[in-house]
Queue: 3 jobs
Job 1
Amino acid sequence: MNVDFNIDVRHLTRVEGHGNIHISVKNGKLAEATWAVIETPRFFEVMVKGVSAERAPFLTSRICGICSISHSLASIRALERAMEIEPPETAKIIRLLAMHGETLSSHALHLFFLAAPDFLNVPSAVPLMQSHPEIVEAGLMLKELGNTLSIVTTGRATHPVSLVLGGVSKAPSKQRLQELKTMIAERKPALDRTTAFFRTLTLPDFVRETEFISLRNGTSYPYIGGDLVSTDGVVHDENDYLLMTNEYLTEFSTSKFTKVSRQSSAAGSLARFNNNYDLLGPRAREAAASFGLEPVCHNPFMNNVAQLIECHQIIEEAETIIDRLLDDDLLDIKADYKPKAGAATGAVEAPRGVLYHHIETDEEGKVTKADCIIPTTQNNANIHYDLHALAEQALAEGKSEQETEKLCVMLVRSYDPCISCSVH
Amino acid sequence: MNHLGFEMDKVKIGSFDFTCCEGCQLQLANKESTLPDFLNLLDIRNFREISSERHDDYDIALVEGSITRRDEIERLKAIRAQAKILIAFGACACFGGVNSLKNRIPQDEAIREVYDGKAIETMPSMKISDIVHVDLSIPGCPVSKDEVERIVVGVITRSQVSLPKYPVCVDCKQRLNTCLFDLGEICLGPISRAGCDAVCPTGKTPCLGCRGPADDINFPSFKQLVIDKQLSTADMREKLSFYNGFVDYLDT
């Protein structure tokens, strides 16, 4: 078929930040497929220079409005490792519960309000309030549960208040923890209903072999710290994050690209799932089995399903953590420390994938150098090359311009990109 | 829509973001329990982050973020030309926000440091009112959904909208918190505008002034308090500079 068309999606909707898709077809052949981030850069690495270690996590949390807890904890981990501070166990699990809240809320936002409208052929979740009220309600319930976990553990849902160097500045009250426990028990059925609903949706059949990058600690599903691993068998120490990213600039994007063993790689829920399937709990595995999802899955659209499976894992873990905190006197929550010179990397699994903050301090504890590598930055190249392969497949299958565009925007949304984050 | 027995049309609203983390727009989707009712008041004409439908016939524009690139100036002016009421929301829109911290060094130096000198365009961070007239400001990092809801509903129902004039300390005392100054920490609560329910000092971390100065603050007395308590003036400056809300006081 000798068709000519251009697909130009400027400022893609239902994603965080500003990105463009460009597809050009000439004489029925794909001439060009580009993923370009055009977000205004913010220069956080410059902004944080000279800021005290104590204040730095409050600044870097502002890199992202969705995953501010992850950014705060990545900086805290980098600084604690650089200045040899060991936070108390209780503080560590409070932080983990805070991350679970953020991930649950972020996944619920993406699955129900950003991704679901595509599968149901509507422009936003607003019409779904009429057509699928029970699904919108379940999405809101899960998002609110995630936000409440973050509020109880850190003071608020966006830009945490009580995550500080050395531990946490304030422990949650037993009463709030007890209320959270009840809230989880009440809302678990909403997740089961949701899972059943997502099983009814058809995901595009597309596979491009990919190297998946995530953290792995060997004892639990990964959240804070660990080895850097890939599905191609690469393993690096946390401080060697540069070997796992190899950032480079392109002519068409303000966000950098990365690669490891291949021309591109991917981070996120599917990457965590592919590298850590053996560490998932029974509920999450059962949910995965119900979708026929097994590692290593190379269909990027399955990142949506992997997010849903992680919601099961998070809720199961949150219940255990809350029980532990209810049995704890919650007094030992912050270690004393003296500022010192040092350098280290803090790696955490943010909702959208592995996030690195590398920070160097002087003897007064002021930040002298910082480097932040964001999950979406690590997905940009993969999105770019996926778009190429997907557009070629769509052409080969004789799909129309409109069908191809729909597939392309759905592909980008499947990565749940956090674009302003990637152009920090 | 029915309000106090009066039938009213839904208000046509658009939400727009410039240089920022988009955390303030995200707050609009929070407070899930009242979200469907809140959405019922609105006819969302343009909100890229949540909807693929885009129209340019909005009456109210919510604007988030600061301005750091020339194309943003043009986009902002077009929004101003369309909107009957332009609301700047969030510390970045109201004061320039944390982005202003990069204004401390020359912009070409910043580009060299982060992008190895690639031709990336940026300029010193500006607040929205540096470029266009702003009708209402809702400060905060992030904004509080309660306040946004109260102000948007106030605008729709044509009732008086205002921010608290008093400082964060008032709310903090009501929450029975121990004063952070008594714990040896500088807190901007005595000079920052209330309306956040003193969320930071309640979490035992100091207020960094994300809502800017309260009305009629006594800044010299605040500085004296820091000196009397023998606390670090460098720490005070770091806190005052954080969101750029106190830029007019820094050298006083």
Job 2
Amino acid sequence: MGQAINDIQEELIEEFGLFEDWADKYEYLIDLGKKLAPMSDAYKTEENVIKGCQSRVWLHAEKQGDLVVFQADSEAIIVKGMISMLIRVLSNHTPAEILAADLYFIDQIGMSQHLAQTRSNGLVSMVKQMQHYALAFS
Amino acid sequence: MAEKLNIDQIRADFPVLHQQVNKAPLVYFDNAATTQKPKAVMDALIAYYEQDNANIHRGIHTLAERATSAYELTRKKLAAFLHAPSTDQIIFTSGTTAGINLVAQTFGRANVGKGDQIIVSNLEHHSNIVPWQLIAEEKGAEIKVIPVSDEGVLDIEALKGLLNPKVKLVAVNHVSNAIGTINPIAEIISLAHAVGAKVLIDGAQSVAHLAVDVQALDLDFFVFSAHKLFGPTGVGVLYGKRELLEAMPPYQGGGEMIKEVSFSGTTYNELPYKFEAGTPNIADVIAFGAALDYVQAIPSEALAAQEEALLAYATEKLQSIPGLKIVGTAPQKIAVISFVVDGVHPQDIGVLLDKFGIAIRTGHHCAQPLMQRYDLVGTCRASFSFYNTFEEIDRFVTCLEKTLQMLQ
């Protein structure tokens, strides 16, 4: 078993707690986006695309044993940073754990505005889609 | 030399400009999406609701009389603003989109038939494309498109080739919302009229910047929104030629738009009420009158000079940023700059500029066909108004440079 979902969230809250000003926080977020494991082009299909008004997000999920593994990508780097955290928190967990997850870290690290921009990026739809996959795999 | 504007004094009239956003002074460069409102507009709204609120046109009591007079006064001001021959030709709608749909569903439905053509341009906002697609689909008509050059200029030679007697309507914007091009509408109108086509001009982006004389231009239809002209949201204006408006069937049915109703048949009210079914947006129309007074009190040459200077200054500064490309470099432009930066998604720029307190627009600007033409997912758009300053442009450029450093 890997780390529990809430342990990973606490870890992220601690990491972001190191930064006092928003610019450092965003530089870290951008860095996370740049370091996100590249998604295989084979998964960047029309089927896997989550449309936002301004940028696209691709999400692929598969079951490995009991665990759901996610891969994702976006055209926009800040969205990609958010994706990277969502994958870190939710990937490699069981469907039941994913469905039960309360993603409180986003608010705690001061990034909830990116989930409020419902039309401009695909993040809200991405979280929903991750849960739909978990449901389908459960 | 035109009289210079006292910008500090003007800015004092716009309460919203004086605030901190994300701990930085707000720089509002999203004026093409909506302009800010002078205090006079808010005062008019409050005064109306505190003193005059009543339903208009049929009430015989004093408040109804006051509300009706104030509402109709805005119509008079608009007729003067557009140089319209009469107030009857000024129809209140809820916005530009509603005005275009009204014309599509009345003039379009009555005049466009199978095999006919409607011409739009590659520069249009979706709201001047989709209503025509709907009517074209319903009637079996075709949509033709005026192409746009790499600089963002409409190809008038191509329009000449497209025009023929099957064209019933040409619908183009006066100014492009996405890239700021000012289109040669006088020429487009005279070319269209030569083949018997009518013309609808979407003035949403022009009315805050350019004078419009509907008679001198021989305009058939002109539509715009109050909120892009310093007025409230939820009010739009449709101007039409009298003979066209009179021949058009009614749009929405209801109160206000009728003369007599019986189950054996209904007769319709005169212009403009024929197209104003139901209780209109009384308060916002009245407040829009205050916006018109405000903007018309500013000398128009000074206003235009300020905006031109802002555009020139910002263009020069932005061009010095490595990797930045301005999209839309037409010789005739209003104070709008659309740009992209190599290797950077526009959304990322918009998100970070907001952290600096700077409001710009990013995305496709509801002009996806234009983005496809330039093979772009979107652009960043900074759009200025006369209340913006050179200092704001300096801060915008400095913060943009910092933003790009973070992203690259």
Job 3
Amino acid sequence: MANQSGSVYGLTILSPIIDDQKAVPSHDLQIRKYLAELPVGVDSPFALAPGTHLARLVVMDDVIYVGMPACEEHLKSKYLVFESNCDGDLESYLAGLAKTVPHHLDAIWGHCVGYPGARDVDAFIGYMKACQIETTFYFAAVNDKSVLQTLRALQTQRAVADFISEHQGHDPAHLQQEFTGFMQKLDSTPAPRPGAGNIERDIKTGGRNE
Amino acid sequence: MSKLNPTDIQGFALRGYNLPLARYVFLHMSSADRARKLTGRLLGKITTGQRWDKAKPQSTLNIAFTHKGLASFELPDATLLSFPVEFQQGMKDRGGILGDTGLNSFEHWDEIWLSGRVHAWVGIHAQSPSALADCYADLLQQIQETEGAEVVGYQDASAIKINGDFTPKEHFGFTDGFGNPDYLGVERRSQPGQGKLTPEGAWAPLATGELLLGYADEAGELPVAPIPHIFAANGTFMVYRKLHQNVATFRQRLDEWGAAYSGGKEKLAAKMVGRWRDGTPIELAPDRQDPVLVQDPQRNTNFTYGSDAGGTKCPMGSHVRRVHPRDAFGFNGRLINRRRITRRGMPYGTYVPEGEPVSDQDDRGVAFMVLNASISRQFEFVQQQWIDYGNDQKLGNDKDPLMGNHGGRGRFVVQGDEDPANPPFICSKLPNFVELRGGDYFFLPSITALGMIALGIVDPR
């Protein structure tokens, strides 16, 4: 199944945006405004709700004519594109979003045609599935691990690297003793929250000046 | 295939002169008329890419301009504004993108780069001190007679002399200058490992448009270039970076780590760079340097990382594997063909042999220059993603051990195996071994374009 790669689900949803000449600003601009101010890091709706590896929300106005030899085509509507690489079962993922961040969903999808709201979880799931199209291409950096497993693995990698750099060259008995203590501490440390633990990088990337 | 006219291309773009002495002179120009006159005087003296059939000249002369420098000639706005954004901004304003922060931020740069007064770079390379002095004296005379510019300052540089002979060493003690890329149409003694990988695993030259404007690049497109076409063609962009080297800190940390690493200090040094001090690629000679291999042009740049996916021979984070990953990202190396840069560089400051007292405060390092068709796609990408980040190498936030802007928080992982002489090892709390002391982005025009500047006939229509 093209939507599934191992335990990871590739979700693609295109929701038509309401076309109302009288709306000022237009519904698509209102979505853009809300998305531009959407929290990131631990407060991101996709960090608060369970199961998202990577998500992207894009307002697609139309397909752009790039000149010959392309042919000129247009969309019937403006669309909100939602792409997500998420854990496992689609319905429980969507239900998780509806239960955890309904106000964000309503503020965004409220500008889309036929959106029933997130309060009625079944109706929300039904709507999202009706707007779904098949995903054929995945974000390559997501491997066959759940979000929790991935966060755990990164935490372990960092901790083990620190342990090694502090203990390399110690005698075996001392090393074993330290390692046992280290493992106990690591096991009892909770996994970091999604969106947390990002090391601050003093480099500008992905900006409009690149 | 691109057919090049080497007499229209500045020689510095096509080849490293391999001359032992250099002076990089920085000019400020305040009158368009007089600056044009000076350019006209220098036009016939510029060293082109024409072959030296007889012998090397005593000295060479090349010239390049910042965006402000081009503006000082009062070129048409339509031409000035057609240059790529990063060149118009200049290196200082690109600090955020380059990660030139902390110790590398402009507050720590030499005064000359803070004023914004550098308009031109004039590169003199020479065989001897007297040849250098003669060439410089002639430049000064042209400047004086035309009043076309003011010398804001200059940087002297010299190949490092050991036991009375010039060597290709840099101050940390490594042999430098291996493996610039080959380009289609550029006549050069080429060797395997210097171009791009073919699907069959052979090496072929890169598209000319990765180096020179006006030719197809690896995507089959013309690189972004100023208008008119004739003003851009056969020109290239040059990045100048004065890289200070903290030799004392480097030696001290290498001693500390080397004492704890059972492979020994020299092997650890080789793991950091990816080459032993004499230049032998560690990928080909993981246990010791090999004087025969390193002298063999058929072998000394001819290797790939496909059979060393775990980095147990050449670490994933070593300098050479970062800046030229070859096939390390798969797809026969095709992911890197638009990220290659041509490097020129020359040490400055006094060389201090191993074991003698040395201080980080001494003025020593490398006057480092990059030539590429697109500063943002090539140099800036390499600097941002491969020097100061580790994601492509699957190393998270780790930076280049030697060049990275670590700020005391760096980490370098040496992947190892079961061989007791090749254990895994982690160097932590890396400081900046190299610090940026200034520089800028320059346009190195063709001879035709220089003539157009001198005659005042740059016309974008």
